[in-house]
Design goal:
It is built from 1 helix and 18 strands. It is mainly beta.
């Protein structure tokens, strides 16, 4: 993982399929011999009534919902995108709302709905996500899980860090990014895999227009992960956007991104990264799984709404 660049689209499709299961029990028809008389017994046939018992589907665990729709779930062997297959039944599932650093809250399952407008790529979960105080601002993710979503420590560090400021400049070399006056807005330290080796996730930006219109050439947003591998610090970019002159009245638009949660989203004891990204007409959430030290973090699920 020298430098893995992952460009985030509004949605991320994953393969495979999962859902609830049902078991069937069926009787059989047998010939029965009457042995209650001494005369030659005639052969008779008695039909045993055939019955079918269907177990009701159990509540599904692991469905991941965002404020813009259901991203998908883990089916036991693979990530399944809600964009390519319908979500399984939820019944009486409870959802845990996970923030980056706030306490986890619980909410009962909502009613899954599908819209026809095409504005959102994935079904709506029916959950009541808290309204955003301003735009752009991250919200929580929600998951129908009964396991520990934070098996490893997550620390929010000071954003006054010269080392990470210099790393930001280094990563943006060769682009039109103007890193003077840039600021670090997130520095997150954790152990995603629980292997004793720390990862640090950094978000840096230079943005003057919070409406994300009319950004100046060279303004940027970047999210990257650093980890020591074989005694060498290596970096993977999760998101990078640099505003450039597009030849119209305003110089460009901005698409910033921020880490919204770090949590174990499939119950394997390892934590994934949830990242929200925005532009002036929409927003999306992308889920990254840290695969291994060769591949680094890979986008596995996503949900988004936008024009």
């Amino acid at each position: 993982m020298k430098q893995l660049i992952v460009l985030v689209a509004l949605t991320v499709a994953a393969s495979a399929c999962g859902g609830g299961t049902a078991s069937n029990q069926t009787g059989s028809t047998l010939p029965v011999l009457d042995v209650t008389t001494t005369v030659a017994p005639p052969s008779t046939t008695t039909t045993i009534t055939t019955t079918t018992t269907t177990s009701p589907p159990a509540p599904v665990s692991g469905i991941i919902a965002t404020s813009t729709g259901i991203a998908g779930w883990w089916d036991g062997s693979d990530w399944v995108s809600a964009e390519v297959t319908a979500p399984p039944l939820q019944l009486e599932s409870e959802y845990q709302f996970v923030y980056l650093n706030d306490p986890i809250t619980v909410q009962s399952a909502g009613q899954i709905t599908f819209e026809d407008s095409g504005f959102c790529a994935t079904p709506d979960s029916g959950l009541a996500f808290p309204p955003l105080a301003e735009f752009p601002q991250t919200g929580p993710i929600a998951i129908s899980a009964d396991w520990d979503l934070r098996p490893h420590r997550i620390e929010l560090l000071s954003t006054d860090n010269k080392t990470y400021e210099e790393e930001t400049k280094k990563l943006l070399e060769g682009t039109e990014a103007k890193t003077n006056g840039a600021e670090l807005v997130q520095v997150i330290r954790t152990d995603l895999e629980g292997d004793g080796i720390i990862e640090v996730i950094i978000t840096a930006e230079r943005i003057t227009d919070r409406n994300l219109l009319g950004s100046k050439t060279g303004e940027f947003s970047i999210v990257f992960l650093r980890k020591v591998i074989n005694d060498e610090v290596q970096t993977a970019i999760l998101h990078q956007f640099v505003a450039v002159n597009d030849g119209v009245d305003f110089e460009g638009f901005m698409a910033p991104a921020y880490v919204t949660a770090v949590a174990d989203l499939n119950g394997d004891g390892k934590m994934e990264i949830a990242m929200d990204s925005f532009y002036y007409e929409g927003s999306s959430t992308t889920i990254f799984e840290y695969m291994n030290d060769d591949l680094g973090p890979v986008a596995v699920l996503g949900a988004g709404c936008g024009a």
